[in-house]
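Hi R.,

As promised on Friday, here is the backbone we talked about, encoded as structure tokens. Could you run it through your design pipeline when you get a chance and send me back a sequence?
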């Protein structure tokens, strides 16, 4: 999909490492000029030294922190027509032990922040007649649940619902909203578990294609949804999970 995002300008939140960094890099390879975003202390994976980076902690001071980021990005590049909301968190504790503040913080960053960012960009796009394109990062956990994931799973289910609802509201304005739902991906967040051989074998067993790939596996899906190739794709959550979400239960091998 070389040059499919030529003459496009984008912001990718949470793009200093992991899936966000891979998405930003793939968008740049496809021709887009990308503003990356990360925490003040983050180093940036795979970025050219000349890339533009905005740094802020979106978990603090919502909704103002999200509005400030949108304003900063649009001030740097008013022609921005691509938005990838990828910043998120997983901070769950067991349900019976989880303080409400933990649930609230998860919903604020994983859901409310995306709501505010899309709203701010959409208002700019409608005002300036820009055909904007949005990708929200959800998760396979928006449909499948895990122990010690009540807040996270709830937030990702909300993201999937928000993709549909935003699409219905914004499609009449020429703005496309879709989402990417990764399955189990090897990232800095998941590496502590996946680096244990037994855990990794178990997850590979539960994935039809037997693979637990790196973050680059999600990049092409984001580029496709942002490109003109997906011009008639609205309100969809594209699962990038090796088939995990469609497989009820694998048969364990005799040697397990």
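Update: got your reply. Pasting your designed sequence below so it's all in one thread:
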């Amino acid at each position: 999909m070389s040059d499919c995002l030529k003459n496009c300008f984008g912001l990718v939140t949470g793009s200093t490492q992991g899936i966000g960094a891979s998405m930003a890099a793939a968008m740049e390879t496809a021709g887009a000029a990308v503003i990356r975003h990360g925490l003040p202390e983050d180093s940036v994976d795979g970025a050219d030294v000349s890339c533009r980076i905005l740094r802020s902690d979106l978990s603090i001071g919502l909704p103002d922190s999200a509005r400030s980021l949108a304003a900063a990005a649009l001030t740097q590049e008013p022609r921005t027509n691509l938005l990838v909301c990828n910043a998120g968190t997983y901070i769950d504790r067991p349900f019976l032990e989880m303080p409400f503040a933990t649930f609230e913080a998860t919903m604020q960053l994983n859901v409310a922040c995306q709501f505010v960012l899309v709203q701010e960009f959409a208002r700019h796009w409608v005002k300036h007649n820009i055909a904007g394109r949005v990708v929200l990062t959800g998760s396979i956990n928006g449909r499948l649940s895990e122990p010690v994931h009540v807040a996270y799973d709830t937030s990702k289910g909300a993201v999937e619902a928000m993709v549909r609802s935003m699409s219905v509201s914004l499609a009449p304005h020429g703005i496309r909203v879709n989402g990417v739902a990764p399955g189990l991906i090897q990232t800095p967040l998941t590496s502590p578990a996946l680096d244990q051989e037994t855990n990794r074998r178990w997850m590979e067993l539960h994935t039809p294609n037997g693979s637990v790939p790196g973050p680059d596996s999600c990049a092409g899906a984001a580029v496709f949804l942002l490109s003109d190739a997906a011009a008639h794709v609205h309100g969809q959550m594209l699962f990038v999970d090796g088939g995990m979400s469609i497989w009820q239960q694998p048969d364990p091998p005799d040697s397990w």
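One thing I noticed while checking it: The chain is about 40% helix and 15% strand.

Thanks again,
M.
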